[in-house]
């Protein structure tokens, strides 16, 4: 608790923390409402809901070679705030696409908004790393989990309630307002030039293709030379599978198996339960990260979440499924705190943007492939239970992989003088 109080006494961190919350809220409420709108209007075409999620993951693959370079070469503060404001404008365009009833345009705007948001996380993460010392990194990652759990807890519920009260249009307006608030919070931060531009002053005109490509390769080379970092980052592929699967599987299993008559109401309850689980799990993860070695915490959480995902497909009542969801929610923050805090410790601050620029596209690639898999094979070929087995099995597989390789790479990095665990 002492570290948490110290963090919030740092005004820059407090504003970045609140900005992260409002920005993530802006990416959740309207999209939740939009998914339910498409499920209601195109009930016989569940692929539309999957395509909506796909439009959020695929754009990252189009700009992945730029996001890390931009975060390391340009003003990180301006990148983060401008991402929020551009997303606010695109939210208004999203509203217009629904008003004129042009669903393809809706998907295009979603695609563009996601592409812009891809630049936010590397810049914001690098800013947080710059204003904190290493002893606070793991605690800060734990607080990021609190942000994630809060928008899980309130975002889906507010999105559905807004959808019921004033329609999908109202929810998208909340999105736009959230992005604007986040941008203002980031703009109000007072940070030195060294934090904002650790690699010196550059403008976008300086970023010619040769420079971008060179920095992109430098980032890849940096990762490949560090075995532990490479191993941790490779695990993000399975996190993409988990994110892609959970984004639609929970709605599908409620609508088509457990609660077809009242799946919307149950979705609200499930969202609250899941959010509370992540919220409590975030606090537990912050404590455990100080007690356990990070690789032990990571492996344990992957086995727990993978097993609970598989069991969740086998139950036949909503309440038993919620129990499985709580277990998943409790374990997810442990994975993120362990791997997120670990990477912050071993990566040079000057390289954080380029390293983060590789993490997001890898995760989004696997997330996109998972959503394409679901859109192509569900419900025609695979049952909803099969989706759960695939996701849960992937988590357990990576857990086994980490058991086999992490101890050896940890020892190697220690011998090279890099702080680990």
From TrEMBL:
The keyword Transport applies. The keyword Transmembrane helix applies. InterPro entries: MFS, MFS_trans_sf. GO terms for cellular component: plasma membrane. It comes from the Bacteria. One of its GO terms (molecular function) is transmembrane transporter activity. It is found in: Cell membrane. The chain crosses the membrane at residues 12-39, 51-71, 83-112, 228-254, 266-285, 292-312, 318-342, 362-381, 387-406. Pfam families: MFS_1 (PF07690). Keywords: Cell membrane, Membrane, Transmembrane, Transmembrane helix, Transport. It is a multi-pass membrane protein. This is MFS transporter. It comes from Bacillus aquiflavi.
